[in-house]
Amino acid sequence: MSRFYVTTPIYYVNDVPHIGHAYTTVTADALARWHRLLGDDTWFLTGTDEHGLKVQRAAEAAGRSPQEHADVTSARFRETWDLLDISYDDYIRTTEPRHHAAVQAFLQKVYDNGHIYKGAYEGLYCVSCEAYYTEADLIDGVNCPIHHRPVETLSEDNWFFRLSAFTQPLLDWYEANPGAVSANGKRNEALGIIKQGLEDISISRTSIDWGIPVPWDDDHVFYVWYDALINYATAVGYGDDPERFEAWWPAVHHLIGKDILRFHCVYWPAMLLAAGEEPPPHIDVHGFLLVGGEKMSKTTLNQIFPADLVADFGVDGFRYHFLRDVPFGTDGDFSYEAMVSRYNSDLANNLGNLVSRVATVVGKKCDGRGTAPSPDSPLAAIAAESYADAARAWDDVAPSIALDATWRLLREANAYLEANEPWKLDPGPEVDTVMGDALEVLRIVAILASPALPNLTPVIWARIGLDGSPADQRLPEAAAWGGYPAGRPVTKGDPLVPRIGTKG
Ligand SMILES: [Zn+2]
User: Fold this and answer.
1) Cα of 145 to ligand 1 centre, how many Å?
2) What is the pLDDT of residues 177-235, one digit of tens each?
3) 151 CA → ligand 1 middle, Å
4) pTM score > 0.70 for this model?
5) Which of 198, 199, 281, 405 is 20 to 30 A removed from 325 (C-alpha atoms)?
6) Dihedral sign (CA 433, 435, 440, 445)
7) Cα 377 to chain centroid, rounded
8) Does 265 participate in catalysis according to the annotation?
């Protein structure tokens, strides 16, 4: 059996979950659901990153302990994922004992392997990024490139990771694993960083204590970024259950935004090599989700929160829009109007109207019982193509293409009904065949769309009289033409996806 292990970044608890976080998480969720349909042994990890100076300062400002603060803010992410029907298998928090143990085991191994040493560090530090910058990185030599605010000079005794020693091993690894980072432009970006030459990096702090203690030196805690990356290993048993780790690690797929490419595509593979482990075999990098052409941030007050959109579009409408309209890998610009238009065209019209039309005609012309599809239907070949295209696209982490391929089948089915006009025919074999074909399309689409629409697709499934749920079906067998059984009760119900008027 093949395995599929998918991760989102663990989100920083100082952030409030917005549609940028939701975009990555919904994508990971849809991929996990697709792999479950394929029968893959699937593990889906998300969680929160809870250490570091920013959390310590925010907690102080709120009059709470860092742990209390992290408890409150981590729960906001969890509530958001529950709202969006995110089917995570594990929700990791970096303040958990299992993570402390894994981080200490991992970095002890790197230390024992001779890749960590002590040195003095003075650098230009952005508190918001929790990262040091070189002067060349800064805007006008003083401002953080992400936050556009002045950095601080920070000086301390640190433990350093000998990243410089991994320049060549990383280049060798990238050459041996041409598909490790997608899309291709992102792979080149990572290679560009490595080829510039890598400098050793500081991985510990003495200036704060809200972190995981360095096992060989009590005065230090690990710097938040290096503790955070290890969560992906913690969650599949690193340092605790070697068999589990060996089984799952080769199946890992990291989904990340391009702003954390350096950490995931350079530092993390090097850390794994230093610990004697394989770098992650798949890192899928997406672009920014922009609002009004700008990255969302607390400082620019342009954040959009999932609950606000769910109120208007429902959970499935929310999920469908981001999966369908923001191609994975490129920047996307959020637009409420585009969301309304996609909702109305794809969900209300193509899907919702087909469901209600089929139920109406079956009710009037077929005694409310579903009829069998024809093996020779012109829709059979289109269904096969739609499935093949969708499967390839999900495999390529391209949900927008996968859903477009799936909706092609709906569009063709609507056109087929328009051409045959079964509502004008007398009851009989001709109507039965046309309606059987349309029901079969709904059965197949309910399965193929279930990763995006986990709430609507079971409703369609029930209305066309099928037992169980679309998510319980197994691909590719379940997508084969001819699976809809005749004689099931077909029910009309309320409009599945009511149209939304544009807000004036
Ligand atoms: Zn910054």
Assistant:
1) 6
2) 999 999 878 999 999 999 999 999 999 988 788 999 999 999 999 998 899 999 999 99
3) 8
4) yes
5) 281
6) positive
7) 36
8) no
